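Lab meeting, item 3. Inverse folding demo.
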């Protein structure tokens, strides 16, 4: 029983250690802090495209 608790503790620690940087990188995307920048980039991309004339 003790080895089960220890292995679960180690597994949880390893998963947290591996995914903490991923969460830090993706946090602005989920909080929509990046949304105005993405809209600006898409708008500039659309306005600088080739005209059909």
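The presenter then showed the designed sequence:
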């Amino acid at each position: 029983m003790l080895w089960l608790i220890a292995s679960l503790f180690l597994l949880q620690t390893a998963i947290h250690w591996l995914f903490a940087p991923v969460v830090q990188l993706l946090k602005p995307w989920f909080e929509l802090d990046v949304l105005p920048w993405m809209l600006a980039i898409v708008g500039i991309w659309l306005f600088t495209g080739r005209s059909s004339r």
